[in-house]
Amino acid sequence: MKYCAIASGSNGNCYYIAKGEDAILIDVGINTKHVELRMANLGIDPSRIKAIFITHEHSDHIRGLSVFCKRYQIPVYWTAGTSHGSRLHLPSHLVHIIPANGRTKIGEIYVLGIPKFHDAKEPCSFVVTDGSTNVSIMTDLGRACNNVKHVIQHSDVLLLESNYDEDLLEGGRYSYYLKNRIRNGWGHISNKTSLELFLQHRSSRLKHLILGHLSEQNNTVELVEQTFLPHCESIKFSIATRYQETDMFDVDDILQLQKKGA
Ligand SMILES: [Zn+2]
Ligand SMILES: [Zn+2]
Fold it and tell me: What residue stretches are annotated with the Metallo-beta-lactamase domain (predicted)?
């Protein structure tokens, strides 16, 4: 399976996962022009995307959705709550309503919905699997709930939220209300919580950890790297940012490299 982050952060998210000819996006939270530019850099042909899955209706997850799905006539899969909350009126022939814990087959891959705690109407994360490799995209996690722990235990590739540094958030210039909205169990998880989750629930099958959805105000790439890198000696480690797309990764290549290194 191949995968990359086209964008990741509190201002825009878009993730690509493919197996052979079956390619999907999770979220289209940056505008279509930027999605197209970044796809061109990665060698992705947008017209070959077979489905778009949307995690929830916050603008950093749907900003480019309407234009992108209409331009390329790509079906959109989302929960009834997310559809309603988005206030977007997409062409009905492109809309598919799924349960938050649904299992959707797109060609040879399955996309599994994972309900989560977040201040949206009916949010879920997604795990994409071909039956043997699980690629998990886990952001906007209000808290370290059992669903998150379970997914981490079964991930071969894990993109995990590492949203904020607790001291930067506490000392920063956000209002008391906004600070609490982020950390009250319905917003985002901190670098510290993310690290604890990773250390306690990673299994020996995990091959690649990607940290994502970093806050612009309350986090830095350097802090996330300092937090996680010392614990990633035996696996591949990456940080997905708002500034540019990641490389296109291939699970098979990573496995080969790790076998050679072992
Ligand atoms: Zn959100
Ligand atoms: Zn978000």
Answer: 11-201
**Residue 199 carries which side chain, given as an amino acid letter?**
L
* Residue 112 belongs to some domain of the structure: yes
Q: How far is the CA of 82 from the centre of ligand 2 (A)?
A: 13
- How many domains is the chain built from? 1
Q: Is 102 among the domain residues?
A: yes
**The Cα angle at residue 13 between residues 102 and 82, in degrees rounded to 5:** 40
Protein residues placing their CB within 5 Å of the ion ligand 1: 58, 140
pLDDT tens readout for residues 212-225: 999 999 999 999 99
Token pair of 67 as six digits: 């234009």
What predicted TM-score, i.e. pTM, was given to this entire model?
0.97
- 196 domain-assigned: yes
Residue range of the domain that includes 178: 2-140+156-261
Q: Assign residue 33 the CATH number of its domain.
A: 3.60.15.10
Q: Dump pLDDT digits (tens) for 69-110.
A: 999 999 999 999 999 999 999 999 999 999 999 999 999 999
* Ligand 2: centre distance to CA 232 (Å): 25
**Does the residue 149 lie in any domain?**
no
Q: Which ligand is nearest to the CA of 181?
A: 1
